[in-house]
Structures are given as C-alpha cells and as structure tokens.
Specification:
This protein has 443 residues and is mainly α. The protein has 2 domains: 92 residues; 308 residues, no CATH class. The protein is built from 20 helices and 2 strands. A two-stranded antiparallel sheet has the order 1-2. Helix 9 packs across helix 20. The longest helix has 32 residues. It is globular, with a radius of gyration of 24 Å. 48% of the residues are buried.
C-alpha cells in the first residue's frame, strides 16, 4: 500500500511539474514561435550583417531581412494600444515602419534595392499570391463557390457607385469640383493599383486631356497611396465592427446561410510540395492565357482554378496539398511580404505630399463610399456585409495585389484573397472602361 501511495504521489508531482512547465511555456514571450531571447539573437546577427556590408545578395539576404524585420515590426504593431485596435496593428506598422526605414535612410540603399528587386523582378509577391489564390479556392466548398458566382459583381458595382456618390457629395460640401473629385481622386483609388490602374489610366487621361502621361501619374499617385492607407485602417475598423456585431460577419466566409464543411488533415510535407507545384502551374497557365486573352493573368488564374474546382478535375491529394501550402505561406511569410510592400511600393514622400485636410476628406469619402456600397448591395445578394465591404469594397480601393495582402491581413481575413483579386483585377479593368466613358463628359 505504501509503495502504491508513493507511486501516486510521484505521478501527481510529475503532473504538477508538467502543468507548471506548460504554464511557463505559455507565459514566455515569443516572436514567430521563437523565445524572444533567441529572436533577439537572430535580429542582432541580421543587423550586424547589414551594417558591416556582409548581407548575402539575392533571395537569401532579402528574405532574411524581410522575415526578421517584418516579424519584429508586426509584433510591435500588434501590441501598441491604439494602433492594434483601430489602425491595422502589425500590418500597418510593418508597411509604414519599413517605408520609414527607406525614407529616413536607416535601411541601407543596397539592402532596400535588393528587397525591391526581390519583390518585383524576383516575383516574390506573385509567388505569395499564387499560393493564396490556388490554395484558398481549391480548399473551398465547390457548392459555395457556385452559389457566390456572378453575385459578387453586384457588390463590386455597389462599391464603385457608392464611392462615386460619396466623393461627389464631399466635393460639393468642401468646395472641390465634382470633376476633380471623380477623375483625380476616386478613379485612381478604385483603379486596381499602379501597374493595372494608375499607369494605364494616365495614358487614358493623356489621350483625352492632352498632357503627357507622366504629368497625370504625378497627380494620381498621391491619391492611390493615401487611399491604400485608409483602406488598411478601414479594414481594421471593419474587423472590430464584426467582433462587436457578430450578425454582420461570417468571420472570413463571404456568403450567409451556407455551412462550409470542416476539413481537417495532418500536415504532410510531400503534399505541400504538390501544392507548391499546383500554385506555380496555375500561375503559369494564367500567363499563358494572358498572351491570348486581354485579361490580367491573376484574373485568368482565378477563373482556371475555379473551373477546375467546380468541375472536380483536381485529385484530392493535390487539393489538400494546395490548401496546406497556402496555410503555410500565409502564416510564415505574410509579415515578410508586408515589409517588402513598404520598401518597394510605399513612397512616404507621396503620402506626406497629399496630407491636406481637403485631400484627406475626399480620399476618406471614396473609401467610406466603397465600403458602404459594397456592404449594402452585398447584403442584398446574401453576403455578409463585413466580408463584402472588405473584399469588394476595400480591395477595389487599395493598391492592387500589395494592398489586398495588407487589407486582408489587417482585417484578419486572408481566406478572402480570391475575391479580393477579382475586385482588384476585374474591378480595375471595369474602372479603366468607366474612365474612358466619364472623361469625355468633362472635356
């Protein structure tokens, strides 16, 4: 009996020690899953390599800087009281923290150039978005995908008309012409970013109004940059709204009244490799079709993946692998990508140049109108207002692919990426068409 009692006491002691260890582990501050001490060591080594000029060139050095500084800035942003609740938290601190590092010269020019090249010509942004589009669509319930269908464009039209109506009203109230409010502020913000929006829009303006495209780009860029800032802030506010009023949100699901099947699976490295290959292949097919069909490769990629999912053409292990790869990429590299967005795509000079009260009110009016229009018409066709406002509203009003990542990260709804890309790419094409129709009315 005594032996049994001692054995029980020993087991209880071990159990208490185990619980104490688990409690200490939970209390321990971690960044990227690492104890803060170890992360600090990694950060210090990275800083030393940067400022001694020994940072490896190419992908290795750029990705190291993006991951380490992105995680550090994101961790700080998620703990700043007002910033984390109302201004986008880690997402906005990572973007503008990195932009400030470039603006102030804290980040050496050789490093910022390397990160910019890795993001743009190196294709890291495309690599990331390809994983999210492929994995999130293939991981969706095909019935939900069919049900959402063309109704999504109703929400996009709601965003466009809402933005136009509100910015015109704000313009009239503050003595700003309706023409300039629509052409200089609203259209570039809704146009789908720089490459697919502002640059071709400047060409359209040049053809109708006579000045060289460079003149219009210098006018359009500040609106685009400031609009992206407001879109991130509104994304955080919409997330808070959904938390306070649960009936308005599907917590990342766009459509109401439809239960998605919960699919649980253990992570498998070989399946993730297949998922990586699937993402690369679908992205390549989008570019292949883009050489024939006059649509953005992202849009064509979305259509291809959606058709493959609805028609059940993809083997189950590929679907599962694509979903797992998407989850890995989203969890591991989102803050790294946001750091790269700040370095490569966010010019603080342009943002600061646009900070007049009149300009800020007009840009805020565009974003608010896009949110309101998308939420109302989205609700009309059965969507959750918060998700409709984020994906069809804010993702029409940000800087394209980079803005989509920032907005969805700030709103904690990365699974909406396929719909965000529809709003950015197909919606952006719609705005270019609309610009060609509206501009002659003011000439």
């Amino acid at each position: 009996m005594e032996r049994t009692a001692r054995k029980l006491e020993k087991q209880e002691s071990l159990h208490e020690q185990s619980n104490l260890y688990d409690l200490n582990q939970k209390k321990q501050v971690k960044i990227m899953g690492l104890p803060i001490l170890w992360f600090g060591i990694f950060l210090s080594i990275t800083i030393v390599t940067i400022y001694t000029g020994n940072l490896p060139t190419g992908m290795i050095g750029s990705l190291l800087v993006m991951v380490i500084f992105g995680e550090a800035l994101g961790w700080i942003g998620d703990r700043l009281p007002i910033v984390k609740s109302f201004l986008g938290g880690g997402a906005i601190v990572t973007i503008f923290g990195s932009a400030y590092m470039v603006y102030s010269g804290v980040l050496p020019e050789s490093v910022s150039t390397g990160v910019e090249e890795f993001m743009t010509t190196g294709g890291f942004l495309n690599f990331y978005i390809a994983a999210l589009i492929t994995g999130s669509i293939l991981g969706m319930n095909s019935k939900a995908l069919v049900k959402i269908g063309g109704r999504y464009f109703v929400a996009i039209f709601g965003a466009v008309f809402g933005a136009m109506a509100i910015v015109a009203l704000v313009g009239l109230l503050i003595g700003f012409s309706v023409q300039d409010a629509m052409l200089v502020i609203a259209l570039p913000i809704l146009g789908g970013g720089m490459g697919a929006g502002a640059i071709p829009m400047a060409q359209v303006y040049s053809e109708f109004l006579g000045n060289p495209p460079s003149y219009y780009i210098s006018i359009l860029v500040p609106a685009l940059a400031l609009g992206n800032v407001f879109a991130i802030v509104f994304a955080s506010l919409l997330n808070n709204l959904g938390n306070k009023f649960p009936s308005l949100t599907g917590n990342g699901q766009l459509i109401s009244g439809f239960e998605l099947e919960e699919q649980k699976s253990e992570y498998d490295i070989s399946k993730m490799g297949i998922g990586l290959l699937a993402a690369l292949l679908f992205f390549a097919c989008g570019h292949l079709l883009g050489a024939i069909i006059p649509l953005h490769p992202y849009a064509l990629m979305i259509i291809l993946v959606a058709i493959a999912k609805i028609a059940d053409l993809i083997p189950a292990n590929v679907v599962e692998g694509a979903s797992q790869w998407y989850q890995f990429v989203a969890k591991t590299w989102t803050l790294a990508l946001l750091f790269g967005i700040g370095v490569a795509y966010t010019n603080l000079n342009d943002v600061l140049a646009a900070l007049s009260l009149q300009y800020v009110l007009l840009v805020a009016g565009v974003i608010f109108g896009a949110v309101l229009g998308a939420a109302l018409l989205g609700r009309l066709v059965g969507f959750y207002p918060v998700e409709s406002a984020i994906s069809a509203g804010l993702c029409m009003a940000n800087m394209g692919g980079t803005g989509d990542v920032a907005v969805l990260s700030a709103s904690k709804r990365m699974q909406l990426m396929p719909f965000a890309q529809i709003a950015s790419r197909l919606g952006g094409a719609l705005i270019l068409l609309l610009a060609g129709l509206i501009i002659p009315l003011f000439v």
